[in-house]
Amino acid sequence: MGLQRQHHKEHQQQRRRQETSVPGYRSSVGSNRCRVAQTHQHQAHKTEEGVTSSTTTAGGRSVPDGEGELTLLDELLERCAEATKSDAAAESSHTGSSEWAGFKTAPELLEGVRAVLSRARQRSRHSDGSALAWSWLTLSPRPVRVAVATPEDGRVGVYLTVLPAGNGNPPSHRPMYGCHMLSRVLAGEVEQVKSNSKRVIGRSTHSLETPVWSSFGGGARRLINESFQPAIILEVVMYDWSRGSGYSGSYAAPGTSSSGSAELRAEAEGIGRAEAAGVEGDGGGESGPAKNGILPIVAMDACPCPPALLFRDGDVYEEEEGEEDGGRGLTLVRSDGGAVEQGRAAGEVVGGGVEDLLTADGLACDVGGLDGQLEDIVRRVLSTRSIPTELRQALGVGHVRGLLLHGPPGCGKTLLARELSRRLGARPPKLVSGPEILDKWVGEAERKVRLLFLDAELDHERCVQTGEDPAGLPLNLICFDEIDALCRSRGSLSGDTSGVRDSVVNQILSKMDGLVNLQNVLVVGMTNRKELLDEALLRPGRMEVCMPIPLPDAAGREQILAIHLRKAREAGLVSPEVTDAALGKKTGGFSGADLAGLVRSATSFAIADWRGRLDGNGEANGERAVEITAENFEQALREVDSSGGGRRGRLSAIGGAVRGGLARVLRAPRGGG
Ligand SMILES: Nc1ncnc2c1ncn2[C@@H]1O[C@H](COP(=O)(O)OP(=O)(O)OP(=O)(O)O)[C@@H](O)[C@H]1O
Question: Cα separation of 48 and 324, whole Å?
Answer without folding.
Answer: 41
